[in-house]
Amino acid sequence: MQFSKSRPLPLRLLAFRVTSSFLITLWICLQPQHLVCATEIPVAPEHVQRNEIEQSIPHTFSPIDAHDPLLQERGTDDDGYVPDFAYFDRSLIGRQEAEVIKLENNKPHTSELAPEKVAFFRFEKGTGASKRDENLSPGSSLDRLETKNTSGRSISEDTVEEKRSDEELLLEETPFENSLDRRQNAARRIWISANTCRQPIVTIPLMSTDPPKLTLYISSSEQRPGPNTPRDQLLTDPADFVKGFANFTTETDGDLFIGVSSPVLTSGWDGSWSFEVAASLDGSFHNFLARDYLYMVDTDSDSALFVTFNLTTSNSTADLDKWKNGNPFTMYAFPANANSSRAVIGLEHSYCGLKSLFNTTNNISVSTTITTKFGGGRPKAQFNVQGLKMDEEYTGFLAVDGANENLRLPLITDDDGDTEQFVVRGGGQVFAQWKWRTKADDSCQVIQDLEFCDNIAYAVPSSSAFKQNDAGLMKLYDDLAKSYYQNFTNSLDQIACETTSTAQYSLARNCDDCRRDYKDWLCSVVFPRCEDYGAQGDWLHARNINTPFANGSIPHMDNLTAVFNSTFRDRFAYNRSRVPMIDDQIKPGPYKELLPCDYLCHNIVRSCPAILGFACPEGEALEHAYGEAKKSFQNLTCNFPGAVKILNRAVGASPKTVGIDPGVVMFAVFVVGLFGIL
Ligand SMILES: *[C@@H]1O[C@H](CO)[C@@H](O)[C@H](O)[C@H]1NC(C)=O
Ligand SMILES: *[C@@H]1O[C@H](CO)[C@@H](O)[C@H](O)[C@H]1NC(C)=O
Ligand SMILES: *[C@@H]1O[C@H](CO)[C@@H](O)[C@H](O)[C@H]1NC(C)=O
Ligand SMILES: *[C@@H]1O[C@H](CO)[C@@H](O)[C@H](O)[C@H]1NC(C)=O
Ligand SMILES: *[C@@H]1O[C@H](CO)[C@@H](O)[C@H](O)[C@H]1NC(C)=O
Ligand SMILES: *[C@@H]1O[C@H](CO)[C@@H](O)[C@H](O)[C@H]1NC(C)=O
Ligand SMILES: *[C@@H]1O[C@H](CO)[C@@H](O)[C@H](O)[C@H]1NC(C)=O
Ligand SMILES: *[C@@H]1O[C@H](CO)[C@@H](O)[C@H](O)[C@H]1NC(C)=O
Ligand SMILES: *[C@@H]1O[C@H](CO)[C@@H](O)[C@H](O)[C@H]1NC(C)=O
Ligand SMILES: *[C@@H]1O[C@H](CO)[C@@H](O)[C@H](O)[C@H]1NC(C)=O
Ligand SMILES: *[C@@H]1O[C@H](CO)[C@@H](O)[C@H](O)[C@H]1NC(C)=O
Ligand SMILES: *[C@@H]1O[C@H](CO)[C@@H](O)[C@H](O)[C@H]1NC(C)=O
Which InterPro entries does the UniProt record give (predicted)? Predict the structure, then answer.
């Protein structure tokens, strides 16, 4: 190990080096911690990464044990202690058949595996205190699980699991000596799962084949199941680690034997594998769920913002604090270009694989917080991804750490918003991957956490002058909103709001409704939601079309016709921003606006005293100022506080043209102008 890292030495030192290496080797071999000796190790070229992987994998045993290929062949007892003379014994008598590592219930074992090797594990009958066996008689709800071996776990099974887990909690302290014998002989369900944490790397630039995969063998009779074991000795067909994940479950009253084999490395691939395997009596220790569990809030040219679904169905502060004190969510992002995505292929469903790959391969940083924004005051995990490149496609992975064992998360199961829970177990959980593209220019910038408009979190019109100055940009917008709001409350204060309900302007609405609806509307109007000029969608409204892009060109210079001038170029609806401050102080290039939803305007008209004189534009003026929420669309067709986008999986969407209906030039801010009347 030590020597493979050292630099080449001048020749005259070679003799000295050889001698001293030998001595050092011997010395190292005598240290209990350094049982790995150069001659026997299949050295992984990436052993440099070991440190990181060690730090990124939750260990329940000594890390030396975890990464020591030799130990696998020699076996190890439960606490990872190996008597050091064993090595010398065997080096004298020659290599014996690899030994079998004993697995404990819910304790993952991490192993290194060189090409063309097999690692063996066993899960003995009687291992682990299965509370479940005592509590559920055979023939009860457990029956439904019994014969499954490959099909997907359905929600109903999860529900069964829920019930059981609750019973487990209740019976946690029940003495179980009496049932020990029965447990050891009764059939019980065992889940085996495994993740690829590292795999060989490609050495030929244009290699198009997928990385070679590990294979899982399970047997109840053959102690060392592997590629040479006949099929009738195995409980199931050999199972490849698909995208870094393999699992199996069975009912048995005996021992279970597990083999993990590595294939031959074909040319173009170099290195070895690292994988984690676990046996559990409670459910699959490692998990992949082919579902979405988050929304995209927005992206700009160098960052992106995401939120998970609601983490609880209540808005209690106790629930919120619980999540804030232990946020298990994390997100990994990789450029989706051919080179970067190739490293991810083969690890997409593996928590430990993604985690170590993300840490070692890129400059992208993800900061994770718990927020109650984006609807309902319910806690959600929020991810701010930074360090992205302009106009690039990225792949994202949402994962949940399993350290907080048996964490329950709600999962929306149908369109009515009904929820079921699912359980994240010790090995963590990975969700379906998704892709997104960063914006192509600097005219839009994501902002969040504003002081006054605290519900705003999306891209607003900006310019390269503010690219590194989020705070300055936020202050310009927020101060403007505050100023409008102050003038509004000054007016509202002159109205008899605080009198008894009979004297109030409306029985159904009061001034608090008015203030709330005004603020929602105001913030959506002062902070226009910004998209690239090149974005397609007939709900997007072009702004600032006569200003140059960053490269100096002006849009539509191929169309100098009088009709184009009169319907677009010369109209305020297209050649300005919604709020004058944006053009005066921020000076964005051309961009498109996702218009605020029309109901935001209608809400203030309904909620506020008529004497304030609020009115919404109508007809074509409305079309230039507000968007319409279209229920049938998956897409966000208008903006409102807390609006989020459904993840984009489709690539190459059919382009849509921008609506070009001529219309009266009107801006939503005109409502604010009406304050002059008061
Ligand atoms: C990444 O690796 C560094 C050290 O190499 C470690 O300190 C850090 O915790 C790791 N981060 C993650 C997310 O694993
Ligand atoms: C178990 O898996 C094997 C091979 O995939 C399949 O042939 C068999 O029908 C499965 N048995 C059950 C009960 O699903
Ligand atoms: C294997 O894992 C997948 C994804 O978590 C799950 O749908 C499937 O039911 C599991 N299969 C077994 C045999 O546990
Ligand atoms: C991909 O990798 C090859 C070889 O390492 C390199 O020549 C090429 O520029 C890379 N492409 C990208 C987009 O990074
Ligand atoms: C929770 O929601 C209820 C009703 O929606 C609301 O009255 C209450 O103020 C909320 N509590 C918190 C802490 O947000
Ligand atoms: C990461 O950032 C450093 C310094 O900014 C840069 O030199 C390096 O090329 C970046 N690496 C990648 C993979 O983008
Ligand atoms: C969270 O729950 C609230 C109330 O049920 C709902 O209005 C909101 O849309 C949910 N938000 C997300 C992001 O799921
Ligand atoms: C608010 O009112 C003051 C005084 O009338 C005025 O100077 C200021 O411009 C107003 N603010 C806005 C945003 O219109
Ligand atoms: C300038 O940039 C815009 C937007 O990024 C792009 O649409 C246009 O094709 C570019 N023009 C030239 C001449 O590169
Ligand atoms: C349309 O506007 C452009 C830019 O302002 C100008 O160059 C062009 O001459 C105008 N076309 C007509 C027909 O007026
Ligand atoms: C120019 O714009 C007008 C009005 O939108 C449109 O009818 C015409 O087809 C456009 N001409 C070209 C060459 O794009
Ligand atoms: C909705 O958005 C998706 C992804 O952004 C796009 O593929 C799709 O075409 C859009 N739908 C419509 C009706 O434009």
Answer: MID1/Yam8 (IPR024338)
